[in-house]
Known about the structure:
This protein has a single domain (4-203), classed as P-loop containing nucleotide triphosphate hydrolases (Rossmann fold). It contains eleven helices and five strands. The protein has helices at 4-7, 11-20, 24-31, 55-63, 78-93, 102-111, 117-126, 143-159, 171-177, 180-189, 200-203; strands at residues 67-72, 97-101, 130-134, 162-167, 190-195.
Amino acid sequence: xxxxxxxxxxxxxxxxxxxxxxxxSEKMLFxxxxxxxxxxxxxxxxxxxxxxxxxxxxxxxxxDKRGIFIDGNTGTGKTHLAVACLHWLxxxxxxSYRFLPTSELMLELKASFSxxxxxxxxxxxxxxxxxxxxxIGAEKVSDWSRQMFYTxxxxxxxxxxxxxxxxxxxxxxxxxxxxxxISSRIPEMCEVVHLTGPDKRVTK
Length: 204
Ligand SMILES: Nc1ncnc2c1ncn2[C@@H]1O[C@H](COP(=O)(O)OP(=O)(O)OP(=O)(O)O)[C@@H](O)[C@H]1O
Ligand SMILES: [Mg+2]
């Protein structure tokens, strides 16, 4: 495949130079923050586009300090692309970031009933400059979870923080099944990237 630096000159050289100069603790920080083990090696370089290449749009959005909303069917590479965005952006900017599966957010919120409450959890995830909220809409939606999502997304919307959201649901479906106040905010916060193609887990 075409090297990423052919699409955006200097893109990977910044990454390589930055990573090469990292101390061990910087590398640790870069490696963790919730990125799942399976996805640690997923970058723009090993992302093979199907149809229109979403990488330039992602890089431009992040350069403009905008988020990205990635939708598509299962296995089309949404999580891969979201992690690749972190791998591309973080070494260049060194900003705080977190990868947060929505299912884990829900578990944290439920567990928080007996601790400092939902507020503490939502405050925590409000903070990172870049937050990947992976797989929104995959869990059973209730009035409570609607309110939690809305609160987190609205805070990040107001803060103008960079939020990368992945979902099997289109914006229209998010409006219908979760909350139209969320689907209304997303296009203002994010570039919208629609992934197509077969389930890569089955075809690769
Ligand atoms: N375009 C691609 N190029 C290279 N690898 C890909 C691509 N799309 C998907 N993959 C690989 O296929 C597997 C599934 O991709 P991924 O988990 O990102 O899909 P997803 O859209 O997030 O699926 P789900 O909706 O089930 O969460 C991963 O191992 C990923 O690295
Ligand atoms: Mg996924």
